Amino acid sequence: MTASKKISRWFSDTGVMVNRSMTHMFRSIDTIITVIAMSVMMMLLFIYVFGGAIATGAYSGSYIDYILPGILLMAVGSGVSYASVRMNNDVTEGIFERFHSMPIAKSSVLWGHVISSTISCFISLIVIVLLALLMGFRSSASILEWFEATGIILLFTLATTWMAILSGLLAKTAEGAGVFSYPLIFLPFISSAFVPTATMPTPVRVFAENQPVTSIVESVRGLLLGQPVSNDIWMALAWHVGLLVLMYVLAIRAYKRKMR
């Protein structure tokens, strides 16, 4: 088979797998609703319960403008956990072996989950941003800055989705597969997502300032509010690319071991 035919076959098979995953997803729309509902409840809690008591340092704008990037990352962390569960179901329920017996591009099985998970997350994020606008969020970003912020969140989604695929391949049960997402949901709390890191005790502040979520949040926040992002955007990109490559390599290795 020529290289062009292999590429064409890969796209065709991946499209089928994406369609399969999306069909399952929309038959169980509660997964998307759960991600949206949790994120909206977090926004309501922080804005209307904690917001009046939280100081954001030099930032003097609306508190929802400050916390929205962190809420979006938490939504991604929650959303990709379902990709891990679906991947694990394919492995433990014998569907994996059926696909391997068919003349399809083997990696399309993984990419189907990755692409459908990314689409699902972005549907959730769009709804969350629209609801945030109703709650008072305002952005002074240009179209280019919106695209840049979207690109950063897309890279974060891809990197964490490959982490989810790896977890789904390695876990013994569906419940265990989703556990990996807990740190992703928790990390924004120990970052600049909700309060400035300067307000934290020294050991916590050092961790918060040097973990990936802070640079990602600062980059997205700066872009959405039309503010300078300094070196944060390069740190965010470095974290994204490094994590994406690492998770992809480990997931492919785990996948090949399952194929033996």
TrEMBL record:
Similarity annotation: Belongs to the ABC-2 integral membrane protein family.
Q: Which GO terms describe its cellular component?
A: ATP-binding cassette (ABC) transporter complex
Quote the subcellular location field of this record. Answer: Cell membrane; Membrane
Identify the InterPro entries for this entry: ABC2_TM, ABC2_TM_bact-type, ABC_2_transport, Nod_factor_ABC_transporter
Q: Which GO terms describe its molecular function?
A: ABC-type transporter activity
Topology of the protein relative to the lipid bilayer? Multi-pass membrane protein
- List the protein's name: Transport permease protein
Return the PANTHER family for the record. Answer: NODULATION PROTEIN J
Q: Keywords assigned by UniProt?
A: Cell membrane, Membrane, Transmembrane, Transmembrane helix, Transport
Q: Any stretches that span the bilayer, and where are they?
A: 32-54, 66-88, 109-137, 149-170, 177-195, 233-255
Signal peptide, first to last residue: none
